[in-house]
Amino acid sequence: MHVGLAGFANEYNVQPTTSSGTVGNTSHVARANVLAFRTPGQGLNSIFRAQIGGAAAGTASLNSQSAISNQTAQVKSNAVGLEGIFALKNFKLQGEFARSNYEGSYNGSTEGIDLDAKMYYGEVMWIATGEKYADAYKAGAFSSIKPINNFDFDKNQWGALEFGLRAERYTADNFSANSAAASSSDMTLGTRLQGTSNCNGSGMKEATTEAAIETCKSTATTFTAGLKWILNPNAMIKLNYSRTNFGDDFKYYDLAERVLNKENLLMMRTQYTF
Questions:
Q1: What per-residue confidence (pLDDT) applies to 25?
Q2: Number of domains composing the chain
Q3: Nearest-CA neighbor of 100 among 120, 84, 125, 117?
Q4: Distance of alpha carbon 84 from alpha carbon 270, whole angstroms
Q5: Which of 98, 106, 128, 206 has the largest count of CB atoms under 10 Å?
């Protein structure tokens, strides 16, 4: 059995920037991510993001791509997490829950955003070939499984086979924001929520006003089935299938604003240690 508790409190700066738009157009806005989520397995990026707006560094800078704000935004974040593991012979249960808060401010809180996020996962693992998880547990962590019999086709030995199922989910809510009015002269604007979200019960995919932001909630759930084939202590093959269901349709801005409600991801990886 294993139990872990962790937490942090951080303060750091982010630089609002933009890579598109036209001078004099209020859509040309410098922004920075305060918090963003992507699907597991390095799938879709920014399925949800909370961004803080920032003024660009003057008209001259706006004449080129990737205009950068003349000052940074401050972010304060804190989190606490609890994890637990129970392993019995070739069977293992593992899970973790974390709760966090993010607060961003720009130009003396002229632009600001505050939000909470909760994340968890739970998984069950089974080694079909009989290896014990306890044999791989050292110094408070699980290391690699060593097969009882290394893969040898001539001897009808297949190494170790591990199967797993996982469910994971995030929820972002309790939003509050303040945002300056749009101005074509200094481009001060931009605090927003974007991605899979439901704002004021309308299923909005983007919220740019204080009133809209403060009604939003975003969530997504992923289910994963995996197979790990350990040929010997130096070589393995991994295969995962993941299905992510977005809590609300996701209007993906990098795919011609295509509306998505799920992601299916098939992943395969080989590893060799030498």
A1: 46
A2: 1
A3: 117
A4: 28
A5: 106
